[in-house]
Amino acid sequence: MIRDLYNVRSQPAEDGPTPLTAEEERRARAVLFNDLGRAVSERGWVRFPAYSPEERRRLVDVAHRLGDYWGQRVFIEAEDQCAMRLYLAGHGPQVGVPQAGNSRAGNPQLSRA
User: Fold this and answer.
1) pTM for the full predicted model
2) I need a surface site. Which of 4, 32, 75, 99 has the fewest CB within 10 A?
3) What is the C-alpha separation between 10 and 19, in angstroms, rounded?
4) Element containing residue 66 per DSSP (H, E)
5) CA distance 69 to 67
6) Model confidence over 56-97: pLDDT tens digits?
7) Which residues contact 111 (CB under 8 A, 6 or more apart)?
8) Helix (H, G, I), strand (E, B) or coil at 112
9) 48, 36 contact by CB (below 8 A)
10) Closest CA to 53 of 84, 30, 24, 31
11) Alpha-carbon distance 37 to 66, whole Å?
12) In the sheet where 83-88 sits, what is the strand order?
């Protein structure tokens, strides 16, 4: 049996993410700039969760801003589907060297491995 559905519209998920306002976005980037910048300056790299394209774009912007602020390039790459890594030259992943896993998977705080 085939039914024709007319005037059917999909509804957004009630618990789904909502876009940030311009002020919220500015504040989020400022906090990331300070917190991630501190971690990168202390040890040369930081891993941070990024579950959505918006979060990834935000981290890429923060990496570029840190690079401009410090006068040296801050590299950024996806470690997996859920985490991005910001690092300075000489502190990135090396070919053939396994990286230690993060035992705090799902924890939105900075990894301190």
Assistant:
1) 0.67
2) 4
3) 19
4) helix 53-70
5) 5
6) 999 999 999 999 999 999 999 999 989 999 999 888 766 334
7) 46, 47, 48, 102, 104
8) coil
9) yes
10) 84
11) 7
12) 45-49, 83-88, 74-80
